[in-house]
Amino acid sequence: MHQSPREGRLAASFSPSLAIAATWGVAFFWSCLLAFSYLWNFERTKEETLRMAYAEARAVRDKDMAFRRWGLKHQGVYVPVTEKEGPSPYLRHVPRYVIETVAGQKLALRAPATMVREMMDDYVEQGGGVRGRIVGLRALNPANLPDDWEKAQLEAFEKGQKTEVWEIADLDGKPHLRYLKAWHMEEGCVECHGVLGYQVGDMRGATGVNLPLAPYYAHIDDVAFNLVLSHGGIWLIGLMGIGLSGRQAVLRARERMAVIAEIQHLARHDSLTGLDNRYSLMSRLEQALATARRERQKLALMLIDMDRFKNINDTLGHHIGDGLLVEVARRLTHGVRESDIVARLGGDEFVVALTGIAGPEDALAVGSKLLAALAEPYRVEGHLLHSTPSIGVALFPDNAEEAVGLLKDADAAMYQAKAQGRNRLVFFTPELALAAAERLELERELRHALATKSLTVVYQPQVEAMSGRIVAFEALARWPHPTRGWIPPSEFVPVAEESGLIESLGEWVLEEACRQLARWRKAGIHDVRIAVNLSAHHLRSAQLASRIAAILHKHETPPGMLEIEITESAAMADPEHAIEQLRRLRHHGVKIAIDDFGTGYSSLAYLKRLPIDALKIDRAFVADLEHDVNDAMICRATVALAKSLRLAVIAEGVETAAQRDFLAAIGCDCLQGYHFGRPAPAETFMAVLQAR
Ligand code: C2E
Ligand code: MG
Ligand code: MG
Question: Which carries the bigger pLDDT value, residue 273 or residue 260?
Answer without folding.
Answer: 273
